[in-house]
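User: Sequence in, structure out. Go.
Assistant: Echoing your sequence, followed by the structure tokens.
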Amino acid sequence: MSCTRHNERTRLLAHHRRPLCIKQEATVKPLRYRDVPRAVNATHQAFRNNTMQRYFEDADPAPCRDSRATISVTVGFAEAIRSRRSLTVDRGNAILLFGVPSNNEPGPVTKLISPILRKGDLPELRKRKMEFRVRIIALVKLALGPGVDEMLEIQGLATAPSKQGRGFATALVHTADLATSRCTCGCPGGARAASIYEECAVPSASGREQADAQGRKTYVITGDAQGFYETVGYRLVGEDWLGIDNPLWEGPLVPIRVMLREPRTPHRYSDGEKCPSGWT
């Protein structure tokens, strides 16, 4: 396990870094219940060739595997909508789920059905899930420390393959990031993005001020998507591998990575100074 960058060549996606205060090229909205079937399908398609997904599926040959996965993902989206922790572009074709301090626990339906779904897990799958949990808990503790409890977390990001390359994922991540370090120039780009995020991210029951969501670090646990997250301002702070001591796994080692984005200090533009977003 390491908290330093692994010396490997990672293919970066063809995106350019943009200023924090940006004009949205894709319309980001809260995910709605009617979008869930499309979001579930987009997620399955997007992760079909994911290295970590293959690692778990290799130990889960049961014929009902896809049905169990569909139920789990569907419930996850529904509860993220209920707790206002989900964003989308194109009505479910691109989705982002996030966790916020004090609103990051599994919902009641997830707690109810997860034990039922796990009953179908074969021994090898249970072993690999435990391997992941043990390694990721240790890695997060080592890489992020006790301050992780005050950070925002990107818990899921997917774009349907037919919609990739249009900047949807970038727009979703920027929308979440803008809420943590809002531009103070008054441009509608930053204000609009922050208001969308706050509508979803700050539950009325939490009693938090809107400004409470600002100035926080954001982290994500990923595997294959390191290159993408680097293009949107995240850096690798921790890395480990699955399958190291597993003789039943014949594929390559499976990366698990913790990436972090520091909050940016808002820039206040003086009279006559233009915001780089292009908003007027």
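User: And one key feature?
Assistant: DSSP finds eight helices and seven strands in the chain.
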